[in-house]
Amino acid sequence: MDFELGEVQARFADLLWQCEPVASGELVKICEKELDWKKSTTYTVLRKLCQKGIFKNENGIVSSVMSKEEFYSLKSEQFVDDAFNGSLPAFLAAFSSRKALSNDEISEIQQMIDSFRKGG
Predict the structure, then answer these.
(1) Which residue of 22, 36, 71, 72 is surrounded by the most CB atoms within 10 Å?
(2) Number of CB atoms found within 10 A of residue 71's CB
(3) Cβ(23)–Cβ(60) under 8 Å?
(4) Among 26, 23, 41, residue whose Cα is nearest residue 12
(5) Which CA distances in Å does 25 have to 15, 31, 35, 36, 113?
(6) Are 11 and 5 in contact (CB under 8 A)?
(7) Residues 6 or more apart from 5 whose CB is under 8 A from it?
(8) pTM of the full predicted structure?
(9) Alpha-carbon distance 59 to 56, whole Å?
(10) What's the longest Cα–Cα distance across the chain?
(11) Strand order through the sheet with 22-23
(12) 41-74 pLDDT, tens digit each
């Protein structure tokens, strides 16, 4: 699945996640007001996001196939897979080599590790 969104698609997706489910006619009005888009632009970008499997337009009602959190989680997984051969430790090493982790971040990561060790 293609999880890459350009700036325009990302703004539109955020708008959709905020107002879903929404009638497609109402979505056109929202996009005209919020993004200064014409009807054709709204439907073109909507079609592309539906083709990516993120949203659906059934019987004139637009809703998400996956939540914003699910989308960004899958996008993150894809990034780690593509850039670090799926190695989360390699990603964390690269990330922390240029940006020091705060004590709060370290504690949060440690809590996650402890939770995974306990099986939950």
Answers:
(1) 71
(2) 21
(3) yes
(4) 41
(5) 15, 10, 15, 15, 46
(6) no
(7) 13, 49
(8) 0.72
(9) 10
(10) 53
(11) 22-23, 61-64, 55-58
(12) 999 999 999 999 999 999 999 999 999 999 989 8
Cα(42)–Cα(115) distance, integer angstroms? 43
Residue 116: CA atoms inside 13 Å, Cβ hemisphere, count? 5
**119, amino acid identity:** G
β-pair type (22-23, 55-58) = unpaired
Q: Count other C-beta atoms under 10 Å from residue 28's C-beta.
A: 19
How does pLDDT run across 96-113, given as a tens digit for each residue? 888 888 899 889 988 988
User: Tokens 């997984």 correspond to what residue?
Assistant: 77
User: Which two tokens mark 87?
Assistant: 């190695």
